[in-house]
Amino acid sequence: MPRSTDRKQGVVLLDTRPHTPEHEHSVHLKLAERLAQLLHTQVVEPLHEPTARENFYYLPTETLIDADRCLRMGIGSCDDLFGGVVSRPYMATKAISHPLPADARYPLGWTDAFARKASDALLRGYTVFSLDDAARAAALLLRDGPVRIKPVRATAGRGQTVVTSMRGVEQALTGMDEQELALWGLTLEENLTQVQTFSVGQVQVAGILCSYYGTQQLTRDHAGEEIYGGSDLTLVRGGYDTLLQLALEEHLRLAITQAMTYEQAALQSFPGFIASRRNYDVARGLNSHDKPCSGVLEQSWRIGGASSAEILALQAFAADPGLSRVRASTHEAFDAAEPPADATIFYQGNDRELGRLCKYARIRDYDHP
Q1: Looking at residue 112, what DSSP letter applies?
Q2: What is d(CA 132, CA 170) in angstroms, rounded to the nearest whole number?
Q3: CA 338, 341, 346, 347: dihedral to nearest 10 degrees?
Q4: Which of 168, 175, 112, 110 is nearest to 141 (CA)?
Q5: Separation of alpha carbons 245 and 367, rounded Å
């Protein structure tokens, strides 16, 4: 049962991945400290697997999948973690963002109900769980133009390939792990050009709910690859209905509405799904016929690139009950420039894997009614 009125004994950073880069671990620890401030507790490192009786708050590095284990640890509602819980592996990834092609293989627990309910929020595409189905889906999509092949567990835009022919498809699929594919899936979708990606989401911690929209920026890492470089968010105290009361351009209003449709489809289609941190990437661009398109690319029911701005905003709302709106941003810089004076630094150093990197967030301005 939820225990929203009970004080948490501590915030536990729950790293469920086999390897976490040092820059991400540093960011996660600093976010855990700020969550502990919001909850009036401290960051702790239990010596054994925690139980429900101990009443901890968790910061998982990934969406949690083992619902039974979560309940044993005391994760039963949004009040117990910053992130989300789902019942099947594929539900934690962008695999849910497309339906299956006809007669395709699928994993235990797959439901077509989500794609039907979320259809107005999705781009054209397919999710597959075998190489044969991937080739079949690609052939169908190539009839209308280039196809983007997206490994579902890759982040920051890494690992994606745009193909224009079946030979390109064969090359892109070569070497893929069939067991990995059978468990997690692979997505193929229409390739958009002149793309702008919006972030829409909600976070809820310590009884404070805030909703937001924003834009993402790209940057280049030291290898020259173009990847996620940060987000610029407008956050309001309250739900999506409050967000929609703002004066918004039509494409932003559409992005928020599509994120809401996607989220409602998940709540209705995935038993046991809970999430206190819900973020949706919504792409707007031109398809192969130069027609404007908009759709949700993927969900993030876990800590993400925008979370430093989200948590700074939550702290601002907690500190000032009269505050109704803030603008906050996150930044990932691979150059040697010093961050602005008002930056809250979450990582600055020479990461062993990525090289010199600075991750920081800023609160840009405040708005009272």
Answers
A1: S
A2: 11
A3: 20
A4: 168
A5: 15
* Distance from C-alpha of 63 to C-alpha of 83, rounded to nearest angstrom: 6
Q: What is the pLDDT of residues 181-201, one digit of tens each?
A: 999 999 999 999 999 999 999
Number of Cβ within 10 Å of residue 233's Cβ equals 26
User: How far, in Å, CA of 368 to CA of 161, rounded?
Assistant: 45
Distance set, CA 10 to CA 122, 292, 359 (Å): 39, 48, 25
Identify the structural domains of the chain with CATH numbers, from first to last. 11-89 (no CATH), 90-117+124-191 (3.30.1490.20), 194-367 (3.30.470)
Q: What amino acid is encoded at 88 in this protein?
A: R
**What does 310-369 look like in DSSP terms, one character per residue?**
HHHHHHHHHH-TT--EEEEEEEEE-SSPPPPTT-EEEEEEEETTTEEEEEEEEEEEEE--
Stated pTM of the model: 0.92
Alpha-carbon distance of 114 to 99, in angstroms, equals 8
Span 291-314, average pLDDT: 96
Reported residue count of the chain is 369
DSSP state for residue 99 in the 8-state scheme: P
Sign of torsion over alpha carbons 306, 308, 312, 318? positive
What is the tens place of the pLDDT at every residue in 233-254?
999 999 999 999 999 999 999 9
